[in-house]
Amino acid sequence: MAEAQNAPVQGGTVPAGSTTAGQIAVAAESTVATRMSAPPSYDVADFPVPHGREEEWRFTPLERLRGLHDGTAVADGGIRVEISTPEGVTQETVGRDDARVGRAGKPVDRVAAQAYSAFEKASVITVPKEARPEEPIRITVHGEGGTAYAHQVIELGAFAEAVVVVDHTGDAVLAAGVDYLIGDGAKLTVVSVQDWDDNAVHVGQHNALIGRDASFKSVVVTFGGDLVRLHPRVNYASTGGSAELIGLYFTDRGQHQEHRLLVDHDQPHCTSNVVYKGALQGDDAHAVWIGDVLIEAAAEGTDTYEMNRNLVLTDGARVDSVPNLEIETGEIVGAGHASATGRFDDEQLFYLMARGIPEADARRLVVRGFFAELVQQIGLPDVEERLLAKIEAELEAAV
């Protein structure tokens, strides 16, 4: 597998490439300004209707968004949401005027702003200060064939610890926002699984605001859907915060799966680690990964790394992988990124086949191994087993 990467740096950068593009720049402006055609805003009118030539939309097939991008998609209650909370965790429904809604980050594009302006009520789940529920919070979003706009807030008090599992299933056209508010010293793990039916469209922005000495672990798993476009975004409210962003996607024939990340280091002595892996198979399978990391001038002592790896299983599939790193201060611990895309490792296949394993089985073993490292980091046996079974089902058609 060919790989382009840069080594960790001290107060500087070493350029690196990617599958289609890659860059590192020492910048005087925030990526919020340089990487988008308009600054973040809650107002839909602040974002022009995209035409596909903008940097943030050039990979996305706009005609498959079903009107989410131009205001023609009308909500008709197309989803059913079920929330299961363990003892001590509260759930409430609030309006857009609640101070917690949107606090973790503003919409960054027209679809996100449309989702924010169009949802009727937001669900707020609160884990109190120092609480540590033994069971995960489970959220099921099931599409029922219609169009919906939604917003959720997950709030952890100081020194609380919680795990949240979100499952997306069924058929829907959904634009949604999620806020993760992580109090000082708190620890939040979120596993978001996109296992939609083949016709679904899902565009989401996930904002995390990490408190002092708090930690956030995000696991994003994308299998289904006609088009899935997700924006995981991380900001730090104070010093000492850490973020771990893990992603796994399996892009099948005709699917478009796009993950666009931003980690904004705007506080000193914070860390981030990003690892996303994807496999693709079938004609017109298209995966897009954009990894933006910004180290602002105030963020001395930052330590960050991001990596994206892709395994192309068949002809006709396409990957666009673009890591970006912008550094405004030389007083950092380290910063680096890597991007790699390739086919099967011939040496691994030869090793397995030389020991009597048929080629098709050997290929399955290679792909399982490719994903196993990430799946095992989830830490929830039932979720891990379900994902491994899903990968196995995908591989039955792949190799």
Write the layout of secondary structure elements.
Layout: E1 2-6, E2 23-25, H1 31-34, E3 79-84, E4 90-94, H2 110-118, E5 122-127, E6 137-156, E7 161-182, E8 187-194, E9 201-210, E10 215-222, E11 227-236, E12 242-251, E13 256-265, E14 271-280, E15 286-295, E16 303-312, E17 318-327, E18 334-342, H3 346-353, H4 359-375, H5 381-398
Parallel strand pairs: 2-17, 5-6, 6-7, 7-8, 7-9, 8-10, 9-11, 10-12, 11-13, 12-14, 13-15, 14-16, 15-17, 16-18
Antiparallel strand pairs: 1-18, 3-6, 4-5
Helix pairs in contact: 3-4, 4-5
Give a short summary of the structure.
This protein is mainly beta and 399 residues long. It has two domains: 2-344, no CATH class; 345-399, no CATH class.
Span from first to last CA?
Answer: 18 Å
Ranges with pLDDT <50 over ≥5 residues? 2-37
- Quaternary organisation: single chain
Largest β-sheet summary: 18 strands, mixed
Order of helices and strands: EEHEEHEEEEEEEEEEEEEEHHH
Helix content: 10-25%
Task: Please tell me about this protein's structure.
This protein has 399 residues and is mainly beta. It has 2 domains: 2-344, no CATH class; 345-399, no CATH class. 14% of the residues lie in helices and 43% in strands. The chain contains 5 helices and 18 strands. It has an 18-stranded mixed β-sheet that branches. The protein is globular. The two termini are 18 Å apart. Residues 2-37 have low confidence and may be disordered.
Could you list some keywords that capture this structure?
399 residues, mainly beta, 43% strand, disordered N terminus, SUF_FeS_clus_asmbl_SufBD_core, SUF_FeS_clus_asmbl_SufD, SUF_FeS_clus_asmbl_SufBD_sf
